[in-house]
Amino acid sequence: MPAINNQTIMIKNLTSVRGIKCWGAHIGIKSMRRDLAIIYSEVPASAACTFTQNKVAAEPVKISRRHVRDGKAQVIVCNAGNANACTGEQGRLGAEAMVAATAEALGIDKELVLVASTGIIGEPFPTDDVVDGIRLNVGKLSDDPKAGSFAANAILTTDTFAKEGFLEFELEGSPIYIGGIAKGSGMIHPNMATMLSFIVSDIAIGPGLLKRAVTECVNASFNMITVDGDTSTNDMVAVLCNGLAGNKLIESETDDGYVLFRQKLEDMMAHLAKLIVSDGEGSSKFVEYRVSHAPSEEIARKLVRAISGSALVKTAMFGRDPNWGRIICAGGNAGVPFDYTHVDLYLGTEEEQVQVLKKGSPTGFDRNSVKRLLRESHLLVHLDMNEGDAESVGWGTDLTTDYVMFNSVYTT
Amino acid sequence: MPAINNQTIMIKNLTSVRGIKCWGAHIGIKSMRRDLAIIYSEVPASAACTFTQNKVAAEPVKISRRHVRDGKAQVIVCNAGNANACTGEQGRLGAEAMVAATAEALGIDKELVLVASTGIIGEPFPTDDVVDGIRLNVGKLSDDPKAGSFAANAILTTDTFAKEGFLEFELEGSPIYIGGIAKGSGMIHPNMATMLSFIVSDIAIGPGLLKRAVTECVNASFNMITVDGDTSTNDMVAVLCNGLAGNKLIESETDDGYVLFRQKLEDMMAHLAKLIVSDGEGSSKFVEYRVSHAPSEEIARKLVRAISGSALVKTAMFGRDPNWGRIICAGGNAGVPFDYTHVDLYLGTEEEQVQVLKKGSPTGFDRNSVKRLLRESHLLVHLDMNEGDAESVGWGTDLTTDYVMFNSVYTT
Q: CATH topology for B286-409?
């Protein structure tokens, strides 16, 4: 590894978190890119995950589900290029070998290993390559920021850029760090995309409370993005908090710092989720959907998901079409109470919106000026239900001819 | 109206059903095409409907829901070109005027009128044109088959052809007729598509039992098709059975002829549903999805819907890609128990399929020969769960670059 000069550009990422070491290597599953990531904490950490809801879960997902059940983990190992899904007994043994090799090389218990995979479904898992790769690369684990970036790059498949984030906040007078990486929903070749995110922090927090925070934050972030509505067999978000910041252990939601940490964790996840949408395969626009003044957050979220996931709304966004009828119709399909006659609807960008509906009636807006606004690459669709105090925000792409080309022409 | 020679080509449709008269007129809502359909029974009929599940229901849907509650109706009046949805008070009054004009012109009770609309959402309803059109055209109601075709054409919007069906079967030694029309899910300009179907029969059947048959048959037919997953504000299926065949009134599912009628009604609906898919906007393929040996019909249906509705499966069909991973992944997202390790999967056409998975493992099939098969315009995807005796069939389109172009470039 060449010497890295951190003085010129200060990079902060996973490895800036106390006690975290990373590596990302090319072990030959993919032809050119790095394809093995290891994220290691010097001490066992509180751990919490969310996993795909798909009934067809990849082999590493099944193992990680078991290993995280006790709320403890120390390392995340992830390969790209092969999803190890629909691989049967051969895949199960491969994932177990991946765990065993990692545990052995690090001298830790197998139960402390979380394992993930992303890539092609249904191809035999390259167990030997992965096991050899782990043994060769564990010794390279480093707290150099470049190693964090290597890890961020090594989990990518069809993503066009690595997705990283870092933030800090103060608790009891000293800084807490959170670093995260993610990979996204590009889904060219040859199967579906996997959404992965690995987040580490040095905060001291109990595993039960961390699990709750992670679930809530995932619901408000990763679960509010849509590219094409399919959930992969491999989706996984893992959060490790190793306590090396030295704060007083947070064990209850009323404890000092919990609310702040939860918000910062959600900020990190929202940041990574938006990066995933930005890299949505074959999309030309990033669209933020806001539903405000809803009777409940659940209703607001379901509306955001139904509208952002509608093929007709997404093609309208691609076509710069102020087609409020499609938005209202998608809202009506959300499976929640929805009275469009109360609805105010605004279309445009973060900086400038035009009200197109007032209490469900067209405002007589100027179509051409709205169409001009919708030429922007970052759009905002804001639906005000005028019925309560809850709100929700989500992010989606448009549906483009390129999307269809990518997903049909690039065949297996 | 010019004289029509029925001797050369024998057309059978709605008007071939005893006591049914139709008309379809151009009243000027649409620029060139017929846009008002009337389907009338000489006597009040048992009636049953299913309606859109969209929370934003069009004004005519609200009225028809009320009018069909007593299980009786005598006429269906439908305009195309304006959906009368999101039109508020003006639209409600318009739909009521449409009903009143029809009832008055026919000298029947308003409660016997079912009303439907399809077309643009959110534009003021052209009440005067529609009311005048009804008054002018009621007198033209005819049992000539051409009048049935006029009606079939007058409910179309962006459909590229009229969808009609007719069948007969024997009960108690005399023929029973069923005729039906439908319009489909083309959704170019400028809002979402509406699915409408109007079916008439001369069988004598009680309204309670008819309601049950209609619900079951709609679930097995119209509810098993997908073009783009959105449900319109105006969807409606209406069935009138006027009893003029003179059979003994069917009032219980154990009565003679019920099972036969129910099957024939499902056949008619499946015929019309498949025609709708064939006319799916911007699609290049018609795909039949079969799930067999499922633990329950409900599970089979949910799997068919999840797989046929997946954007990734649909783009794979467009790309002639034997991408079984996408199909299994979509199955895993159906929200039902799904063990892919039991699954046999076949891809191809009705005439020739290739087994690509056996108990969840790739069969080592020849990709190129499957890709050649997938060049056909009518495809079959057959997933055998090997878990029970239930099955389900559904129909869908592929997702094409043309679909995106149609739905984005043709703006409001």
A: Ubiquitin-like (UB roll) (3.10.20)
